[in-house]
């Protein structure tokens, strides 16, 4: 009798099947290339530190605005001229020469007296003889161009006997008008008045030798007038003429005379 049980193979159990994928499950994110071994890690977003996701206070906080500079304080008012009609010197001049003081003002300790042209010589004689203003420091002019009268002739007087006191005289002179000469009071006014005549064109009545002193005879215009062109003008006069007029040019006995052989 044949034993069939030994020839019969045991049944093969069925292979286990993988569970069906869950539709709601998300696939795992792919590993970025920067995370590969040996590659540097990608920089974290600005304001995030490490894996915790905390915001960095120093990086996220805005910079404080620069403080505004304080407003500049207003500029103090400068000094202003004051009336000086009550000054003893002014009152003494007005009493000694009636009509000699048209106005008087003081500015930062400096006294200015406006004198009419016709009273200038008498005022200067009084100030020199009676008030000890024996030194004429300077005599010049100012061109106001648009003003009438156009010019101011200005004299600075100095007194050593009065403790180096100074006073300024100012005379308004119109264009084409003359100013009285004070060479009879201070001989030093001679060249100063010639300079004003040359550069401003203001003549001085009674001057002993009124002629140009810095420019030559024949020069057209007056260089310190406001309407004189800055670039100069063609005067048409020769600076070095071929022949000097009589009395002009170097003399025969002048040690600086050069003889060309």
| Order of H and E elements | HEEHEHEEHEEEEHE
Report the mean per-residue pLDDT as an integer: 82
Secondary-structure-derived class: alpha+beta
Which fold name corresponds to the CATH topology of the domain at 82-187?
Beta Polymerase, domain 2
Low-confidence stretches at least 5 residues in length (pLDDT < 50)? none
Helix coverage percent: 10-25%
Termini separation (Å)?
A: 173 Å
Largest sheet: 6 strands, mixed
CATH class of the domain at 82-187: Alpha Beta
Assembly type of the shown chains?
A: single chain
Explain this structure to me?
The chain is built from 5 helices and 10 strands. With 261 residues, it is of the alpha+beta class. It has a domain at 82-187: Beta Polymerase, domain 2, CATH 3.30.460.80. The strands form 3 sheets. The protein has a 6-stranded mixed sheet. The radius of gyration is 52 Å and the shape is elongated. The model has no long low-confidence stretch (mean pLDDT 82).
Brief account:
The chain has 261 residues and is an alpha+beta fold. It contains 5 helices and 10 strands.
Feature tags:
six-stranded mixed sheet; two-stranded antiparallel sheet; 5 helices; alpha+beta; single chain; 15% helix; 261 residues; Beta Polymerase, domain 2
Annotate the secondary structure layout.
Elements: H1 4-7, E1 48-49, E2 54-55, H2 57-60, E3 82-83, H3 88-96, E4 103-107, E5 110-114, H4 120-129, E6 135-143, E7 151-159, E8 165-173, E9 179-180, H5 189-200, E10 204-205
Parallel strand pairs: 5-8, 9-10
Antiparallel strand pairs: 1-2, 3-4, 4-5, 6-7, 7-8
């Amino acid at each position: 009798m044949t034993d069939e049980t030994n020839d019969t193979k045991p049944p093969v159990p069925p292979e286990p099947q993988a569970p069906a994928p869950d539709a709601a499950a998300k696939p795992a994110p792919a590993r970025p290339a920067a995370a590969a071994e040996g590659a540097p890690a990608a920089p974290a977003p600005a304001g995030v530190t490490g894996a915790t996701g905390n915001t960095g206070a120093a990086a996220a906080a805005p910079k404080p605005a620069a403080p505004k500079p304080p407003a500049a304080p207003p500029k103090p008012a400068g000094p202003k001229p004051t009336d000086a009609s009550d000054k003893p010197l002014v009152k003494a001049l007005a009493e000694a020469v009636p009509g000699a003081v048209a106005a008087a003002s003081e500015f930062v300790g400096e006294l200015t007296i406006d004198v009419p042209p016709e009273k200038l010589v008498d005022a200067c004689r009084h100030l020199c003889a009676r008030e000890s203003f024996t030194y004429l420091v300077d005599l010049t002019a100012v061109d106001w161009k648009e003003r009438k009268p156009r010019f101011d002739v200005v004299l600075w007087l100095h007194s050593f006997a009065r403790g180096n006191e100074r006073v300024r005289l100012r005379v308004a002179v119109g264009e084409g008008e003359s100013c009285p000469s004070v060479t009879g009071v201070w001989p030093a006014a001679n060249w100063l008045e010639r300079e004003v005549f040359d550069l401003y064109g203001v003549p001085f009545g009674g001057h002993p030798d009124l002629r140009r002193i810095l420019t030559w005879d024949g020069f057209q215009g007056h260089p310190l007038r406001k309407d004189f062109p800055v670039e100069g003008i063609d005067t048409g006069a020769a600076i070095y003429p071929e022949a000097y007029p009589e009395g002009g040019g170097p003399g025969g006995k002048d040690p600086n005379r050069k003889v060309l052989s």
